[in-house]
């Protein structure tokens, strides 16, 4: 409601006046101050709709040719654009505000479909008491350190990796124990008979990283569908652990795969690692490559197998891993922003 007289000079005002004709003061200056304060408070509280309501009331009390009117109109336009964005892009902005577990449920369904062909085999492994109990203990330890979402993703990533070994062992007719989880180390499968054939040993060793690659790519696909950062963190960590296992030293999978390679194949692998390092800047590849160079100079070269060479290159292919190159610290930062679950 327009006051009868100007608060500054007491000039009589018309019912629709916005500016005093005598002193050019804003007629509704006090009301405008309150509306601006309410709008700022709503903005600070994250209530964009409330802020837009207050600014809309304020713009109606300002002369159309004033600077204040133009400034408020710009604020209104920005607020309207941000509020209308979810409708314009199919709800992406609105979806991003929901909890990760609500955004991620389509991802769980997608992951189940992608693993459907192997699901029965994976579930069969959980029927072994030693696997289930050690897995639960492993999960509990990492839950206390990193929070349950990443701990759960880590457990299942390692489990899928180990079940890759088990699947190849079954295919080769070699007896072995069920996967056993050990906190701080990971998991292992104990062979109950000796494997003397280097090609068979390579197949068994590389089956784990190949299945692990599948787990990482599934997690990455779920992230692309759900935009829940927890899935990207799981994909990153799975990729990092998978790549670490390909270091060709001691009893790691990469060493078992290297046994069968001829000398020229080992140097071809070194070249592939060097290219991947240049393209992805994944520092762990420097360690993997350095050990591969050292192994290439040794005299224990195998008979050669190009299929094994191609399989060894798969997990370090830059196209597969370029988006998964952050290390554990980066994963921890991403999880901290998303879930606030770190100590």
| Alpha carbon gyration radius | 31 Å
Q: In percent terms, what proportion of residues is strand?
A: under 5%
| Sequence of strands across the biggest β-sheet | 1-2
* Overall pLDDT level: 75
Biggest sheet, in brief?
2 strands, antiparallel
- Element-by-element helix/strand order: HHHHHHHHHEEHHHHHHHH
Q: Name the overall outline.
A: elongated
Number of E-state strands: 2
Give a quick summary of the entry:
The chain is mainly alpha-helical.
What layout of secondary structure does this protein have?
Elements: H1 29-44, H2 48-59, H3 67-88, H4 92-96, H5 100-103, H6 105-114, H7 116-125, H8 129-146, H9 148-172, E1 180-182, E2 186-188, H10 198-226, H11 229-245, H12 253-258, H13 263-280, H14 284-296, H15 306-313, H16 318-321, H17 328-339
Helix pairs in contact: 1-2, 2-3, 6-10, 8-9, 9-10, 9-11, 10-11, 11-17, 13-14, 13-15
Describe this structure in words.
The protein is mostly helical. It has two domains: 1-97, no CATH class; 99-339, no CATH class. It has 17 helices and two strands. A two-stranded antiparallel ribbon has the order 1-2. The longest helix has 29 residues, at 198-226. Residues 87-97 and 316-343 have low confidence and may be disordered.
